[in-house]
Amino acid sequence: MSAFYVTTPIYYVNDRPHIGTAYSTIAADVLARYHRMRGERTRFLTGVDEHGIKLERRAKELGQTPQTYVDSMVPPFKEAWQQLGCAYDDFIRTTEPRHKERAQAMWRLCRERGDIYEADYQGLYCVGCEAYYTEKDLLEGNLCPIHKKPVEVLNEHTYFFRLGAYQERLLAFYEKNPQFVQPEGRYNEVKSFVREGLRDLSLSRSTFSWGVQVPDNPEHVIYVWFDALVNYISALGGPKRPGEPESPFDTFWPPNAKAVHIVGKDILRFHAVYWPAFLMSAGIEPPTQVWAHGWLTVDGQKMSKSLGNFIPPAPIVDAVGADVLRYYLMRDIAFGQDGDFSHQNLFARYHGELGNGLGNLLNRILASIVRKTLEGRVPVVDRGELLAIDRALLDTAQASARNAARQLEEVHPNRALEAIWELVNAANKYVDQTEPWKLVKQNDTQRLSQVVYTSLEALRYLGLMLWPFMPQKSSELLHQLGFDALSPEEGVDLWPDDWGKLPGGIETRPGKPLFPRFEKEQEAALIAQLAPKPAAEASVAPAAAKAPSSPAAAKPVVARDLGEKAATNIDVFGQIDLRVGEVTLAERVPKSDKLLRLEVDLGPLGTRQILAGIGKHYAPEALVGKRIAVLANLPPRKMMGLQSQGMVLAAGDGDVLSVLSPANDVPLGSTIA
Ligand code: MSP
């Protein structure tokens, strides 16, 4: 049996999950679920990229060790993927020993092949990308084309990888494997990049230490991209040591499996040029395919914290559920192209395709007809009595299943959903045309049974085909039809291909609408609440987030001031993320009598460094272990050279001041509303 292996990029932990990273992860999950339900042996890997100068610097800014910092940033990823229904089999962290030792093993293999040598490196480096640039790649003013920030000039003794020596082998490999990179346009870009010639790649750094140590040279750490790319095999136990017993690497890496890397177009070069070259050098087969999807923009602009248009998935999931966000992302954006994220479009698809299309189909057959007139049971029918109109729907269902499967095999989730919706639309039209409610009135039970059965079969097809995209809604739909939740098994193909599998006589379980309507005002309020908020800060008087030199900053928040403010509404409050946290460390900021540096554990949100202007009222020791209220979605700001990542809520004025605390020990990270 062939095996299927799908991976996401491993995400840098300096950003929290957002809809861009969610997009890659959901796409990989959809593919994994699809292959799993086809009965294939399937493995889905995601994880985080924890090394490199970017993360080392960020930790320093926060006054933390890199390890403490990265440890605190991992839970939000795991939590987000769980909340989005992304059922990965393994989550790799590049700081884990299992990874570090395989990254070193890979280095040794390349070195033994004679592909690693030492020399002086002089060049340009973007810390945001963790990538080398040549002058011709840069924007005016030596700015990185992606981060629009000045690149740094490096001048150090490093190890190099003989990438130049792989030009011909890579081109020959591309020639032999026309499907290696998708979409095709991107493949052409990769090929012309390689045809222009490849320069050897600096493969180590010696001016910082946060990385995997170069074997036999503690002065150097391995270049973060070499380290990161190895995750795809280290998580499987590769590269294997001589004589090692059978491991997932044997099952899930080519030639024994189809291995597909889902990546954003921004990191294609690393995956389609460097990675196969490293693998060739180590004597390991390249992956089967690298699929580069496009970028999600917000109002046409790249998402970034500084632009204030950074969209985390959690509030959308809270508002409409994970499956709706999954559906929207997979349907609205053609895989491989850029797409603009819009809450309005999300709601339009919710009401249109999901509510009026799929939800309504289920409701009009199950709740209105089966429950009321057929005692809630699937009718028993004779296939020989199907009319042409019934057969036409049957044919559409078969075609829809075939097309959707083909599109998923070829990694076109949006086209697969289009194929599935051909059946949703055809089934609704079928119900309009066959008018079962009239058959009820006419007491034509035999024809009614045929029509109902045919419609329910279409719904069964839909329930199954939607499982990769909307696992929860698919289970609810199948449950209402009288089926148990899908549980894929190796060797068992659950994709629908056979009309008539719905057993006549079984009891259905009509339930709540799959996609209940939002009233217009409710929808407008949700859209306002979910919109990116550039200036969340402006609406709350900051106790600690402002520089202590400003008199307003010393004056702590809320109670008394609130009455003096203009009336506001609940939506404004909804924009504020207030959380319960526990102070794990408190100390005075040198040269300041007001500022305290706190480390506050916000549970799933991780530990934050917060500077609070409460030093005249609190001894640091008195705060350690205390549960407090924190404003958690302020953009970070610097005070006295230290970053503050939130604000502590306190009541009072210049003379009396009390930090707010919940009366009972609610879990860390609980929202305050
Ligand atoms: N750590 C590297 C990847 C190493 S893989 C061996 C990295 N990490 S990243 O955190 O910057 O995120 C990488 C991926 O996140 C992108 O390639 C893409 O898959 C996804 N996205 C990040 N922002 C995105 C959008 N705005 N839109 C779509 N995907 C985006 O690079």
Task: Map the helices and strands.
Layout: E1 3-7, E2 11-12, H1 19-37, E3 41-49, H2 53-61, H3 66-83, E4 90-93, H4 97-112, E5 116-126, E6 131-133, E7 152-161, H5 167-176, E8 181-182, H6 184-195, E9 201-202, E10 204-205, E11 213-214, E12 217-222, H7 224-229, H8 231-234, H9 248-252, E13 257-264, H10 268-282, E14 289-293, E15 296-298, E16 301-302, H11 314-320, H12 322-332, E17 339-341, H13 343-373, H14 388-409, H15 413-434, H16 436-441, H17 445-465, H18 471-481, H19 520-530, H20 551-554, H21 559-562, H22 570-574, E18 578-588, E19 596-601, E20 607-612, H23 620-623, E21 627-631, E22 637-639, E23 642-644, E24 647-648, E25 650-652, E26 657-659
Parallel strand pairs: 1-3, 1-13, 2-3, 3-4, 8-14, 13-14, 15-17
Antiparallel strand pairs: 5-6, 5-7, 7-9, 10-12, 11-12, 15-16, 18-19, 18-21, 19-20, 21-24, 22-23, 25-26
This protein binds 5'-O-[(L-methionyl)-sulphamoyl]adenosine.
Description:
The protein is 41% helix and 18% strand. With 673 residues, it is of the alpha/beta class. The relative contact order is 0.09. The longest helix has 31 residues, at 343-373. Strand 5 and strand 6 (131-133) form a beta hairpin. The model is unreliable at 535-566 (pLDDT under 50). The protein is globular. Strands 1, 2, 3, 4, 8, 13 and 14 form a seven-stranded parallel β-sheet that branches. A five-stranded antiparallel β-sheet has the order 20-19-18-21-24. Strands 6-5-7-9 form a four-stranded antiparallel β-sheet, covered by helices on one side. Helix 2 (53-61) packs across helix 3 and helix 17 (445-465) packs antiparallel against helix 18 (471-481). The protein contains 23 helices and 26 strands. 5'-O-[(L-methionyl)-sulphamoyl]adenosine is lined by residues 9-12, 15, 20-21, 23-24, 49, 228-229, 231, 263-264, 266-267, 295-296, 303. The site of 5'-O-[(L-methionyl)-sulphamoyl]adenosine has 20 residues, from strand 2, helix 1, helix 7 and strand 13.
